[in-house]
Amino acid sequence: MNTDIEPPNDPASLRRALADALAANGSLTDPAWRAAVESVPRHRFLGTAVFRQSGTLWEPIHRNRTGEDAWLQLAYSDETLVTQVDGLEAADASGPLPGRPTSSSTLPSLILRMAQLSGVAENDRVLWVGTGTGYSTALVSHVVGAENVTSIEYDPELAQLAAERLHRAGYRPHLVTGDGLHGHKDNAPYDALVATCAVRTIPVSWMRQVRDGGTLTTTLSGWMLASGLIRLTLDEDGGATGRFTGDRISFMLARPHERPPRPTFFRREGDRRRSRVDPGLLGDWTAQFVAQLAAPSAELMAMSDGMILVDTATGSQAWTEPSGDAWEVHQHGPLNLWDQVENALLRWQESGAPDQSAFGMTVAPDLTQTVWINSPDGPSWRLPA
């Protein structure tokens, strides 16, 4: 099917309206990026269908059943449009299905947030990790020049579709199919690297391919799916430092950093004691991020009457339950998971329980990576190697 036929109404006016809305809410502050939003036809990068969440399922929305007006309104909304669930394209889905998104067209305001945070400008050399539909790559190509953009996509089929759509829209950046965690050394050094996937730790290749003084903008996440947006600036010694922004955003984990199969959980009594923190604290965005730093190979599950931690590496587990006016914790296995999380949360509270904007990160020249509160001398946690 030819997906490049222009609809009967005016997508250009919808792009201008989107730019106006993004400027009004503070997402669009740079005239160069406004020009990109007004010029890049997002509807050309969506194919013929997208998914929308309906309860616990993903419902396919097909262009030919929706009508052009509704389809264009959807395309130019500030909304993430999921295009693939567990590897299945929305166009190939006959009805709602369960699963996890594996590709999407990220909401424009988030693309702009990351791009503007990175500081990229005209003629900068940019490595964009996560081509996806190609829309974000088109935006950055419009600003810095397509010849200065290298964009990497892990999924070969998605990479081919993105290439076709970018070329039809008039953009010819350098496109690479492969593992974005390896970067692309052939076009290095880069002035900036921006990743539209989350990582558990900063890949060595990214550090080696960005120039001294360049920036690396990504979301740091993990197996509890707690995220933090950060821009690191590289130094001449081979390290980097930066602060988290405090934005409440999340991206899909890079596929090589995805969670392994979770060990089966069933309640084991193990060691039992009174908890020093209320498990409900883990419903807080920053508290969950702290817990993830303390137990990086654990997953977190909420129950109606407490929390469960299961370590994917060792099978260790911890679970809480109410006990009178307090909470009791049970721990089993080689790791005392609740001890790790509890101690980290208490250190965070002793520091004033600040939000993520008080957190920073240092990558040492030997590539040891540490997240800290307030300053490198404050409470800190080393990321997994």
Topology diagram in text:
Layout: H1 11-24, H2 31-39, E1 49-54, E2 57-62, H3 63-66, H4 68-75, E3 81-85, E4 88-89, E5 101-105, H5 108-118, E6 126-129, H6 135-144, E7 149-153, H7 156-168, E8 174-177, E9 190-199, H8 204-209, E10 210-220, E11 228-234, E12 240-244, E13 271-274, H9 285-294, E14 298-303, E15 306-311, E16 317-323, E17 326-332, H10 337-350, E18 359-363, E19 369-373, E20 380-382
Parallel strand pairs: 6-7, 6-9, 7-8, 9-10
Antiparallel strand pairs: 1-2, 3-4, 3-5, 10-11, 11-12, 12-18, 13-17, 14-15, 15-16, 16-17, 18-19, 19-20
Helix pairs in contact: 1-2, 2-6, 9-10
Structure description:
It is a single chain. The chain is α+β, with helices and mostly antiparallel strands and 385 residues long. It folds into 2 domains: 11-244, Rossmann fold, CATH 3.40.50.150; 271-350, 2-Layer Sandwich (TATA-Binding Protein), CATH 3.30.310. The chain has 10 helices and 20 strands. It has helices at residues 11-24, 31-39, 63-66, 68-75, 108-118, 135-144, 156-168, 204-209, 285-294, 337-350, and strands at 49-54, 57-62, 81-85, 88-89, 101-105, 126-129, 149-153, 174-177, 190-199, 210-220, 228-234, 240-244, 271-274, 298-303, 306-311, 317-323, 326-332, 359-363, 369-373, 380-382. Strand 3 and strand 4 form a beta hairpin. Helix 1 (11-24) runs antiparallel to helix 2 (31-39), helix 2 (31-39) crosses helix 6 (135-144) and helix 9 (285-294) crosses helix 10 (337-350).
